[in-house]
Input
Amino acid sequence: MKAPRRPIYAVITWLRRQPPKVKAFLAVVAGMATLVLLRAIIHDHDNLFVAAEAVHSIGISVLIYKLMKEKTCDGLSLKSQELTAMFLAVRLYCSFVMEYDIHTVLDLATLGATLWVIYMIRFNLKTSDMEDKDSLPLYYVVVPCAILALLVHPTTSHHIVNRIFWAFCVYLEAVSILPQLHVMQNTKIIEPFTAHYVFALGIARFLSCAHWVLQVLDSRGHLLVALGHGLWPSMVLISEIVQTFILADFCYYYVQSFFGGQLVLRLPSGAV
Output
């Protein structure tokens, strides 16, 4: 006699059978339900942004552990790390000249860890195999973000250069993971530590997005006015949402693999 399946496996099996549109709808519903729950249990929603940066730091720590333990950078995108260092450096500059708070300290620690990862990949653990897979040109990501920052940036009282830099780091952060997803598309098989790192980024992106959405709701839209006028307030929210949805597909397969007891994540064709 077969043992009854655990409810979580029954749910995952049901989800697998659903068409993409139904999965997307369910993902949106789950995201909205999570936002409602976070709003109810967390009173100071600024803590969500701190939590997002903390989760990002945990992801970097997992990455460092992988590099030190396995002595290999297989599955990792050097270009994503370089883009991460770039937007963190620009955001730190903006923090120092525009506002200095706890986020500045967290960003500084994350930037230091990211630079260490870049050093290890570039000089200590470089592999020719990953150069072929990590083939997305950086200017495909950086140039559009720079052009968009020139066109759409804050309308606050800060110097125009600082406002453009601020917009640039917001846009670049939203798409900095694209080279890593490109690598995963090329490999299809993702070892555990890399999967944990990317999943941590997905959680961090969601928490950051939740922070902005709940802040807007709490202020009844006044926060958008404080950010300036024109397209910029909307672009901030869109950038946060884009960050979340870019990684949503991967997070789905990660959770599915985790509950299926698989140590190595295998992505189907067309995923992420």
The chain has a mean pLDDT of 79. The longest helix spans residues 232-259. Strands lie at 189-190, 265-266.
